[in-house]
Structures are given as C-alpha cells and as structure tokens.
Amino acid sequence: AAEEGFDAEEVEEALDEAAQGPLPVLAVVGRPNVGKSTLVNRVLGRREAVVEDRPGVTRDRVTYEAEWAGRRFKVVDTGGWEQDVLGMEATVAAQAEFAVEAADAVIFVVDAQVGATDTDEAVVRMLRKAGKPVVLCANKVDGPTGEADAAYLWGLGLGEPHPVSALHGRGTGDLLDVVLEALPEAPEQTFGARTGGPRRVALIGRPNVGKSSLLNKAAKQERVVVDATAGTTRDPVDELIELAGKNWMFVDTAGIRRRVHLQEGADYYASLRTAAALEKAEVAVVLIDVTEPISVQDLRIVTMAVEAGRALVIAYNKWDSLDDERRFYLEREIERDLVQVRWAPRVNISARTGRHLEKLVPALETALAGWETRVPTGKLNAFLGEIVASHPHPVRGGKQPRILFGTQAGTRPPRFVLFASGFLEAGYRRFVERRLREEFGFEGTPIHMSVRVRE
Ligand code: GDP
Ligand code: GDP
Where does the chain bind GTP 2 (predicted)? Predict the structure, then answer.
C-alpha cells in the first residue's frame, strides 16, 4: 500500500473506522420543554437542527449520529412527541419506554428550575424497570446560582444530578464525559448470527399494511417452546416463530400487537417504534400494501431500514385484492420509487389467505447471506483493477482520479474502503457499487462505501 501513496497507518485508521459495526445508542428522554432537543443539538454540535417551534409537528427523523471525544454513537431524540389522548404522564413514560428499549444508555433530562414533577417520577419508575444505565441531567442551570436547584434532584434516586445549561453549553462537556463512561463500546448484540440462535427480524411498514395479520398468520403455523431453544435471548416484546422448519425471532412485536390509538404524534410514535425494531434486528421485512399507491411514508420506512444498515426484504401484501389495473400502476410505481433498493428480494404475499408466505424464508435467507458476504482482498482488487482499466473515471480539470486499491473492512452490512488518487464523483461511486453487486451478489443488503483520497 505504501508505494501507492498511503502509509500503513493511514490505511489502518481508515479500516478501523469503516469496520466499526453498529454504534451504541443513547436515548434522551424527559418531559416536553425540559430542553431535550436543545441538548441533542448541543451533542450534535448543531450540525442538524432538531428544535421545532411548532408543537405537535410531525418529526419522522428520530436518530442522529454523534461524536464526542473521538467516539461515535447514535442519539435517539424523543423531543418530537406531544402530549396526546393518554395524558401527559402516560404519554411521556410510554414514549420514553420505547426509546429506552432500544438504547444502550439514557440521558434523563429534568428542568432544574421547575424541579421534579409527578411526570418525572413516572419516568423514573419506568427507567428503574428498564435497568439501563441512566445519567441524570439537571438542565436549565444557566449559572452558578442554579446549582442548588440541581442538588434537589438527588431526591429522584438516580444518583448524581449533572447541572447543565443546554442552551448555553454550560456543563454539557462534563455530562457527555459521564455519558460515554455509561455507554458500552459496542452495543449489546443479541444477533442470532453471533449466538447461533434464531435470526432477528423486524416487521415494519406503515399502519394498516398488514403487519399484525402477517404476524398472526405466521404464528399460527406452529407454536414454539421458547426455553428449549439454545442461544435465545428474548425480550417479552419479541416473538419466536417457526417458518419452514426454522425459528425466527420477530423483534418488538408488542408494538405491532399493542394497538395504541394515538392522535397527535402518532406518526412520530410509529417512526420511533420502527427505529427501535430496526436497532434490534438483523433483517427488515418492509410490508407494502399493494392496493394503495406507494406513499412517501412507505419510502421513508424503506430508507430507515437501509440507513440502519439492515438486510432488507420487501413484501408486497394484500396480493389477493390486486386487480389488473392496479397491478399495472403498482409495477410502474415500484420502477419509479424503489429503484434504489432494486437489490432487495421481493415477495408478493397475502397475509389474509397465506399466499406465498413460504417464499418469505428463502428471501430472508438470501438477504442475510448478502448481508454477511465477505470478498477476499485479492479478488476485490482484481475486480477493481478491471474496472479502472475498462471504465476509468472521467477526466476532471485535467486530472483523472483513479481507484488505487480497496478492501472490505466489515460485514453486516458489507463495508468497503476505496483508496483513490483523487475525488471520486457520486455517479462513479454508484457505478462501482452496481458492478460490485453484479460481480459478488450482495442481494438484499445495503453496501457502505467510503473513499479515502491521497492528499
Ligand atoms: P424539549 O421539548 O424537551 O425538546 O425542549 P426544547 O429543547 O424544545 O426546549 C424547550 C424550551 O426550553 C426552549 O424554549 C429552550 O430554549 C429552553 N431551554 C432549553 N435548554 C435551556 C437551558 O439550558 N436554559 C434555559 N434557560 N432554557 C433552556
Ligand atoms: P397493521 O396495522 O400493519 O398491523 O395492519 P393489519 O394487520 O391490522 O391489517 C390492516 C387491514 O388490512 C385489516 O383490515 C386486515 O384485515 C387487512 N389485511 C391485512 N392483510 C391483508 C391481505 O393480505 N389481504 C387483504 N385483502 N387484506 C389484508
């Protein structure tokens, strides 16, 4: 590598970075208006503004990538959900519960100027039950005089309150140092691949696409004796279902079965649920209702699965109700809206009649195999050499950027690092990805590709 202009250290650093598997997840919870979004903005270094000025506005983006002291992690912001029909206490606690379920550590934000309220106490009870590491943030301590207010929060029984002014940045660095200590290096992994247990499946899709129908139909096939299954770590919200003679762990099914009817914030709540399920899953099955036009919400859910780096299967449901005319439009919509995930195995099913449910299993297996594919370095570089020779990058400003070599830094999903002599345009990178897929498969998996340019 050295003779190509990259020294060994540089290469190693790039590989380490690319090899980082799933990032640990930090949830920020608390009542409305305590300053959660302001704090999240601080943590993100204001790279992404998440504070909404209109209450009740739907925010579907709930997880962000952050970095502190050289460590990367994900932040789940729960600031987007307003009080609804359940009433404040239940709403805040339920919302926090969702976020906490998928989190490796939690920041619980309290408004120190107001002190602990009944709603705060309700969240504390939930946090105790969840058993995740909690860092207590006493927010709105804008100056030294507020420190006394913060001290009162010892009374919550969550240990030391950390006085912070999210607005002015006071104390946020110290808070993050404590958070990093609480956050595990790598998220706790209960992936079946690692334990030899059942593979973990997230069944996702917008409301009414047929998620609970599919789950019920599948569960009816055969009941599984859970305790007898080796390598099974199981939350009460997960469900073990046998399909084609194999056990599959459908994660976070409580969110599917428990039909909480929410008005305001319902979309946000659904997004949070989807994000939580994806965190825990290896492969996502996105259900799409073929009787209705493919919607922005469908595409958003597909995007969430891809961004989460999970293997992906797309199941077109309600095939029993599809007429010829609708079918014509459906295929065009798929062509138009879902080209980016052309690599995802597709099954046409009916949760109602059971049509083609058996096809789900080979699709899941294909996607998981793609997700775990590793290309040996020698093979990869032979392939890259061919590409460079047959399809060189267009000349830009008198120079021709060239891929010098590449390597696969990780799997689940496959991560590649390409080392290049100049900036590679997005179009060329897409071309390389397309050719990689043609050459090595990768069916059903997103591919991460980063490019290092020789300075
Ligand atoms: P969320 O609903 O918990 O996400 O709260 P927001 O982040 O939207 O903040 C609610 C209000 O509190 C906003 O007007 C913020 O400007 C204000 N706020 C947030 N953090 C602080 C702080 O540290 N000090 C003061 N004085 N105000 C703050
Ligand atoms: P969920 O909100 O995604 O869990 O959706 P449900 O499973 O509750 O289904 C929503 C509606 O679609 C219900 O009325 C189901 O009976 C109906 N449904 C689900 N699957 C099918 C299917 O395969 N064919 C038809 N025709 N209807 C279905």
Answer: 205-212, 252-256, 317-320
Q: How confident is the model at residue 207 (pLDDT cuts 50, 70, 90)?
A: confident
238, 253 Cβ separation under 8 angstroms: yes
Pick the ligand that lies closest to the CA of residue 81. Answer: 1
The yes-or-no verdict on residue 227 having pLDDT over 50 is: no
Ligand having the closest approach to the CA of 270: 2
Closest residue by CA, ligand 1 atom 10: 33
Dihedral sign from CA coordinates of 284, 130, 180, 36? positive
Q: Which of 29, 34, 38, 140 best tests ligand 1's pocket when mutated (most atoms within 8 Å of CB)?
A: 38
Q: Is 159 annotated as a binding residue?
A: no
- What sign does the dihedral 174-176-179-180 (CA atoms) show? negative
Closest CA to 173 of 148, 137, 124: 137
pTM, two decimals, is: 0.70
Could you tell me if 158 and 165 are in contact, meaning their C-beta atoms sit under 8 angstroms apart? Answer: no
pLDDT range class, residue 79, cuts 50, 70, 90: low
164 has binding-site annotation: no
Known binding residue 117? Answer is no
Q: What angle do CA 264, 287, 96 make, to 5 degrees?
A: 40
Cis peptide before 413 (omega within 30 of 0): yes
Q: Is the ipTM, as predicted for this complex, more than 0.90?
A: no
Work out the pLDDT band at 397, boundaries 50, 70, 90.
confident
Quickly count: other Cβ atoms within 10 Å of residue 79's Cβ.
26
Q: Which residues line ligand 1 (CB under 6 A)?
A: 30, 32-38, 51, 79, 139-140, 142, 165-167
Do 450 and 423 touch, CB atoms closer than 8 A?
A: no
Cα 172 to averaged position of ligand 1 atoms, centre (Å): 14
> For the segment 121-134, what is each residue's pLDDT rounded down to a tens digit?
988 988 888 889 99
Average pLDDT over residues 245-265: 67
Nearest CA among 95, 97, 79 for reference residue 42: 79
| Confidence (pLDDT) at 432 | 95
Do the annotations mark residue 369 as ligand-binding? no
